[in-house]
């Protein structure tokens, strides 16, 4: 089931110079329940809005307070140009939806839905990658723990792995963390096996 | 006013929703007739028949705007046709007056919506049905955005209310093979059926379901009603006689509304064309749209669309749909909710009503006033 996206009560910052496009944008955002502020100055990293709409035709690198490709908030780009350089700039600031210029009312809600959904997916994917990288980094620790268990308890690979895993599950901690504790001399595996 | 102001009327009088187009056309003509009968002059209607060809709508709008100089166009029935026409209307800074129930999620500056969106029809309809019939419905829809989106929202609302959708099926506009759907409904026994089919598919379905009800009373309207937001008086004669009696529809207007204004309206229509025995919400809405457009042109002394828009959103307009208030933020009209039950005389008995509901096209919840409790009148 798809829930109806609702932006009522959200705060948006429009990074653009005021013109007919931003007028239409603000009108439509208002009726979507979004309170929007407009500025043509870099966005402060403190007290970020819920979403950002940036003029990608004229924007410069310092407008957004995050590293390239690492947006802290959903971004939609206002774009009239077809120049690859400007499209690349929009991608670089983390835009995952485009509101074409001249702005038409019907372009705004779909762009917000898309930007927010893509941002959410990106955050989830980033979190998953970070977790997997951490586990990958600690893989040698798990191997070392298994080897030590094999020697100490005269068991095979499979049994050592099972022991480590069951103990980790029991203590509700990742296997890597338990392996590190065990190697560090803790009595983490004392009661098991 | 220096020149005659021309209002374009754009409908299809043939094809699967031809009955609706003919009623919209007649409602527009009647509005002009009433206005002229009251001594009005300086406004002309220009008609274009798109004959249910989607690309002809664009061609029609272009002809109305460029060849005839119409800056206001009343019409289109389906959302597909409306979406087809809007870019051209925007480009020429015109105004489209749309007057059919639709699925919402639109608020265009160049459109005046005398047209209900889901918080004005579907949501109060489900509010009425679920406590009375249960929350395990079957969803049907025409295979385009109206059917898809209305059913998507119904699924969301019903699931959040703890209910369950027992089935969801779509039919192309002119498809009348409904046997598989009937068999599925017979097996699943839903608590009610939400019918967003259009035209011949809808009529075929209602007739087939009546036959099922004759074999098994569990499927008669009193036990498993079929409810829709788009079935009007002008279509009832196209349905097998008696087949739809007892089924429900939510609309902002019914011929049977018992108000002094409606009795006067019906008398005027009867005097104009005695053969019109039942006025549909399409007729009434087109009548209201054209009447309002003419009044705004008179009041502005011009048919310039942005002036017209300012004018129509600036005050309350008496109309056959009640006092119309058009929200300047959304260009949508607040509309009353009436629930009609089809009777044996080819009309609807109004069984529940709510006063005008402010349109909330994006369902933000911010535009809706606290909902008054439903007043059951029979």
* Intertermini distance of chain A: 46 Å
The overall pLDDT average of chain A reads 93
Shape of chain B: globular
CATH architecture of the largest domain in chain A: 3-Layer(aba) Sandwich
CATH superfamily of the largest domain in chain A: Response regulator
Q: Overview of this structure, please?
A:
The complex is a heterodimer of chains A (193) and B (378). Chain A has helices at 20-31, 84-92, 108-137, 139-153, 157-170, 175-183, and strands at 11-15, 35-39, 51-55, 75-79, 95-100. With 193 residues, chain A is of the alpha/beta class. Chain A has a five-stranded parallel β-sheet with strand order 2-1-3-4-5, sandwiched between helices. The longest helix of chain A has 30 residues, at 108-137. In chain B, 39% of the residues lie in helices and 19% in strands. Residues 369-375 of chain B have low confidence and may be disordered. Chain A binds chain B through residues 1-4, 6-8, 24, 27-28, 30-33, 104-106, 109, and chain B through 86, 90, 105-109, 152-153, 155-156, 159, 329-330, 361-367.
């Amino acid at each position: 089931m798809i829930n109806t996206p609702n932006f009522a009560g959200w705060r948006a910052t429009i990074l653009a110079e005021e013109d007919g496009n931003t007028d239409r944008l603000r009108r439509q955002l208002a009726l979507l329940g979004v309170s929007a502020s407009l500025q043509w100055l870099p966005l402060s990293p403190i007290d970020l809005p819920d979403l950002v709409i940036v003029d990608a035709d004229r924007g410069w690198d310092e407008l957004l307070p995050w590293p390239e490709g690492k947006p802290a908030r959903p971004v939609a780009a206002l774009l009239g140009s077809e120049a690859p350089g400007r499209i690349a700039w929009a991608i670089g600031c983390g835009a995952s939806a485009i509101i074409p210029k001249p702005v038409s009312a019907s372009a705004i809600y779909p762009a917000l839905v898309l930007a927010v959904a893509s941002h959410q997916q990106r955050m989830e994917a980033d979190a998953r990658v970070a977790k997997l990288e951490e586990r990958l980094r600690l893989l040698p620790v798990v191997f070392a723990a298994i080897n030590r268990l094999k020697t100490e308890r005269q068991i095979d690979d499979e049994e050592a792995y099972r022991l480590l895993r069951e103990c980790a599950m029991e203590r509700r901690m990742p296997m890597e963390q338990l392996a590190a504790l065990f190697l560090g001399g803790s009595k983490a595996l004392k009661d098991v096996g | 006013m220096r020149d005659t102001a021309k209002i374009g009327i754009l409908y299809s009088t043939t094809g699967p929703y031809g009955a609706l187009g003919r009623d919209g056309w007649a409602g527009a003509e009647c509005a002009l007739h009433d206005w002229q009968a009251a001594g009005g002059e300086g406004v002309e209607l220009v008609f274009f028949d798109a004959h249910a060809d989607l690309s002809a709508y664009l061609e029609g709008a272009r002809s109305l705007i460029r060849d005839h100089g119409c800056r206001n166009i009343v019409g289109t029935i389906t959302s597909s046709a409306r979406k087809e026409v809007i870019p051209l209307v925007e480009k020429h800074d015109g105004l489209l007056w749309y007057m059919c129930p639709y699925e919402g999620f639109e608020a265009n500056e160049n459109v005046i919506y005398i047209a209900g969106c889901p918080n004005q029809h579907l949501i109060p309809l489900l509010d009425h049905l679920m406590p009375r019939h249960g929350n395990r419905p079957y969803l049907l829809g025409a295979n385009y955005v109206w059917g898809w989106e209305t059913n998507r929202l119904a699924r969301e609302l019903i699931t959040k209310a703890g209910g369950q959708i027992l089935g969801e099926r779509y039919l192309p506009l002119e498809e009348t093979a409904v046997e598989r759907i009937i068999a599925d409904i017979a097996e699943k026994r839903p608590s009610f059926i939400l019918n967003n089919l259009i035209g011949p598919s809808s009529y075929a379905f209602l007739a087939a379901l009546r036959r099922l009800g004759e074999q098994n009373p569990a499927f008669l309207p009193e036990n498993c009603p079929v409810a829709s937001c788009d079935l009007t008086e002008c279509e009832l004669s196209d349905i097998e006689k008696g087949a739809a009696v007892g089924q429900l529809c939510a609309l902002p207007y019914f011929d049977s509304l018992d108000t002094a204004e409606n009795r006067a309206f019906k008398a005027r229509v009867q005097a104009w064309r005695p053969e019109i025995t039942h006025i549909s919400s399409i007729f009434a809405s087109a009548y209201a749209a054209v009447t309002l457009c003419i009044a705004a042109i008179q009041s502005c002394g011009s048919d310039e669309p942005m002036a017209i828009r300012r004018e129509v959103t600036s005050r309350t307009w008496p109309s056959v749909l009640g006092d119309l208030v058009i929200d300047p933020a959304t260009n949508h009209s607040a509309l009353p909710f009436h629930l009609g039950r089809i009777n044996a005389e080819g009309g609807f008995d109004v069984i529940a009503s709510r006063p005008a509901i402010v349109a909330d096209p994006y369902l933000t919840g911010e535009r809706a006033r606290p909902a008054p409790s439903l007043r059951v009148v029979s």
